[in-house]
Amino acid sequence: MKTITCDVCQSILHSPVSGRSYFHLAHRDICEPCHDKMQFQIKPVVRTKMPFNYKWYDALVRDSVEKAIQKGKFDAK
Length: 77
Fold this sequence. Notes:
By secondary structure, this protein is of the alpha+beta class. The protein has helices at residues 32-47, 54-71; strands at 3-5, 12-14, 22-25, 28-31. The chain has one domain (3-71). The protein is 44% helix and 18% strand.
């Protein structure tokens, strides 16, 4: 049986399914609830960026994930 630990909240995922119960972002494994919180956190920032740039978006995701790992959670804004 395969298990993965969320790098942000440290919850253990049993029999994980990539893209469903966990997501691999910025070389980190993130559970679905943490992924949803991250999307909620960065959505207002992404909507204000014109023109959209994937390099900028990747940096934003990477920075958000690293800050959340240090805090142990994503900040709800």
